[in-house]
Amino acid sequence: MRKTVMAEKGPAPAGPYSHAVVADNFVFISGQGPVNPETGTMPDGFTDQVRQTFENVRTILEAAGSSLDNVVKVNAYVTDLTRFAEFNEVYKEYFDHDPPARTTVAAALLGMLVEVDCIAVVE
């Protein structure tokens, strides 16, 4: 089984991709950034961008029939690895126990300070 997901309350995709794809009992979330879906704007500060990004991920996971509790793998891309500790502090707000596997890398992002994609189980 393969099904694409476009979250009604999620941010508009910046290109030709789905918010997520459900395959068997997994959901694969496309890379999400810090665009507020209600206003179309991004917060200025790094930690606010990280929070908005995870709120977007949460919205899409829920639209796909999953949740942050079901995330098994996170890929995080940040523009400045000297902010790794700040990223971790916000990350712990969303994954406060039994955190998923994670990779965090520095990346050049267009106008954003952070982007996150993930894989989660659909129950």
From TrEMBL:
GO cellular component: cytosol
Gene Ontology terms for molecular function: deaminase activity
InterPro entries with a match to the protein in the record: RidA, RutC-like_sf, YjgF/YER057c/UK114
CDD domains for this protein: YjgF_YER057c_UK114_family
Coiled coil: none
Domain of life: Bacteria
Transmembrane annotation, as ranges: none
Family classification: Belongs to the RutC family.
Protein's recorded name: RidA/YER057c/UK114 superfamily protein
